[in-house]
Amino acid sequence: MQDKDQLTQQMQDDTGTNMGQRLSDIEFWRSELIYELQRLLTDTRALDTAKKRLECAADETEGPLKIALECLYNREKRMGIDLVHDDVEKNLIKEVDMFKSCQERMRKLAERIDQQLGINRDAQHALERDLSDKSSAHFIDEKCYNLRNTSDSIKFYHGIEKIDGTVSVPQTWARFSDDNIRNSQNARANSAKLCEEMENVLENTSEEMWKQYTDTNLAFDHRISEIGDIKNKLQAHLAKTLQEIFQIENTIMLLERSIMAKECPLKVAQTRLEGRTRRPNIELCCDIPQFKLVNEVFTIGDTLQTLKQRLRDAQDTLQLLVLNKSRLEHDVSVKANSFFIDKKCMDMRKTFPSTPRLIGYT
């Protein structure tokens, strides 16, 4: 009886010691799981913030993209020779392509982050389930550990020792938690890489967009200055042409008056000659008056021919000047239209998202 009492006591003590060790093992893995879960939650929040920053940055580029597209649309309203594929248009097309490319890069990275967030949630649920199971097991084993021969809750459960409901051994049990922690660590490592990649992408796209925005504005400024100079020169040339038209019109008026002024003297001379043809017989003498009258008619005739030729030349010059005036007015109109369009585009481009907004901060 003493031997069996000692054996029973020894076995109960050994079982208690083993259960105490088991509680220590459970507590160790619980603390590891809690620590890993906290770090995973922190990294997941950071990753979720990174995704939101990418989405915000992509949304911020929508405004500048629409403005660039509207500038391209407005510049299609340029006329004639000004409807040219100039540096401004090249930069605008490049700007549109860059905005779309940056948006695509951001959205693809956001999709990868979203997939990683799903992996993180799976790892989080695995840790939480494991932690919950560890807490339940700790509670049960602690309750069993504290049972004594004098405890009120002890009773007989005949045949319980023949039921084996275990699903693991200590090695697989420890490996299960270790695998969960390792999966979580891998998820955190991938999350950190994605966060770093997000920072690089936002920094690079922000710099690229700002550089292209500046290049396009410089091209606009140069083009506006160039068109303004040409328009001013055309307007000066037009003013000079209008002055020349005014002068040639005065010349034509004076020539017409001069021609009209010569008609009466010619009529007088011709009428005198005609009247003297009716002189009788020997009186039809080629005297000095006759000679002078004939010379006067020829001289006035030559004068009229010269004046009429000058008048025709002046009228031809006037016609050329009027054609030149129409062409200059059309060119001025074309340049004024282009100048107005590009100035309007520049007014639209006065605002651009700040760098903090382009990297996802609101």
From TrEMBL:
A Pfam family recorded for this sequence: Tektin
Major localization listed first in the record, in broad terms: cytoplasm
A GO biological-process term: cilium movement involved in cell motility
Highest taxon, organism lineage: Eukaryota
Coiled coil: 304-331
Entry keywords, A to Z: Cell projection, Cilium, Coiled coil, Cytoplasm, Cytoskeleton, Flagellum, Ubl conjugation
The protein's name in its UniProt record: Tektin
Species whose genome carries this gene: Alligator mississippiensis (American alligator)
Lineage summary: Eukaryota, Metazoa, Chordata, Craniata, Vertebrata
